Amino acid sequence: MTVIAPPLAEKAPARQGWLMLVGAFTAFTLSAAIMHSYPVYLVAFIAAFGWSRGETSIAYSVSQLVAGASSPLVGTLVDRLGPRRLLLLGGGLLVLGLAASAAVSALWQIVLLYGVLMTFGSNCLGLVVFVPMLSRLFVRRRGMAISIVQSANGIARGLSAPLVQVLISGIGWRTTYLVQAAFVAACVAPLAMLFRRAERNPVPIERDTPPAEPSADASPEPAAPARRGWTLAEAVRTPHFWLLFAVYMFTGLGSFFVSLHQLAFAVDVGFDKIYAAEVLGAGAFLAVPGIVVTGTLSDYLGREVSAILAYGISIFGVVCALLITSPDQHLLLWLHACFFGLTWGARGPAITAKTADLFPGSQLGTILGVITIGSGLGSALGSWGAGVIFDLSGSYRLAFMLSIASYAAGVAAFWALRRPPVRQAS
Description:
By secondary structure, this protein is mainly α. The protein has one domain (13-204, 230-415): Growth Hormone, Chain: A (Up-down Bundle), CATH 1.20.1250.20. It has helices at 7-35, 38-49, 53-81, 83-101, 107-123, 127-137, 142-150, 152-171, 173-194, 232-235, 239-256, 262-269, 273-285, 287-300, 303-322, 330-342, 347-358, 364-371, 373-393, 397-415. The protein starts with 6 loop residues before the first helix and ends in an 11-residue tail after the last helix.
C-alpha cells in the first residue's frame, strides 16, 4: 500500500529554508552596513584629527586582518553552536563597539574598537556563519542562495555611504555612532527569534536528484554508502585549498586598493562630499543584481566563467577611475561607481559555492573560515597600502594599477580550480 505524504509536510522544510535565507540576508546586511560606513568616517577622522591617509587606514587594515584571522574560530563555533548564538554574540559586540566609538580621541582606540571588537562581532553575522547552513538547505541552487545573501554587501554599501555622510554632516560623527548602536540593538532580538527554530542540521529543501517513486513490487535495495565529508587536514593537503586561498587574497587586494579610498579620492579630485557619496552609493546598489546574477549564472555556466566575468567588469571600473582628473568628469565618476559597484562582492558567491563544491561536509564552516584568512590578508594590505601610496606620491594612481594586476592574478588562480581535488593518503 502506497502512502502519500500530506502536502503540508513537504512544504514545511521549504518554508523553513527560505525563512533562514531571509534571516541570513537581513543579518548580513546589518553587519555589512555598519562596517562599510568606515570610508565615510575616514574622511571625518582626517578632518577632525589631522591624521594621514596611511594612519587613518590602519584601523581598516587591522579590521581586515582580524576578519581573516578570526574566520577559522567563527567557522568552528558555527559548526558547534549554530547561527543563532553567533548572531547574539556578534550583535552584542557591534552595539558595544559603536557606542564606545562615540567617545574616541586617539587612533589606537579606533583600531581596538573598529579593527578588533566590531570586526569580530561583524564576522559572527557574516558569510562564514550562514554558508554551511545554506549549503545544506540549497543543493542544486547553492550558488543562487549564497548570492542572495552576498548581495547584502551591495545594499549595505549603497545605503551606508550616503546615509552616514548625511548624518555626519547634520549631527556629527560621534552622535552618528550612537544612532547606529541603537539601530543594531533594536534589530538583533527579532533576528535571534527568527533563528530560534533553525536546526543545526536542517533538512535540505532540494536534492541533486529527485527520489524515485516507491513500487509495491520492488524489493528494497541496499543504500549506497554516503561520501565522507572533507576534513580541514585533508583539504590543506590539496592544491585546490591554496588556490582558493590565493583567489580570496587577490580578490581582497584588487577590491581594497580602491574601495576604502573611493570617497577620499573623489573629494581630492574636487567633487562635493555628499554628491560623491551619493554617486558611489548608487553604484554600490548595483552590486545587488550583479551578485545575484553572477551567483545564479555560476550554477549554470560554471563557477569559473561567472567569476572571470565579474573580474573583467571590475577591471573596467578601475580603469575609469584612473582616467578621472577633474571634477568636471561626472560621466567617468558614474562609470567607475557603476562598473566597480556592479561586481563588488560578485565573485563571492562563485568562490564560496566553489569551496562548498570542492570540500563538502560537516567541517565546511571551519575550512571556509581558514581559507577566508586570504581575504583578510589581501584586504588589509590593499586598504593600508593605498593610503601609504597616497601619502608617498600624493596620488592613488599606483594603487589603482595594482588593483587591476591583483584582479588579473585572481582570474588565473580561479581558472586553475576547474578539476576537483583528490584526497591525499594520510
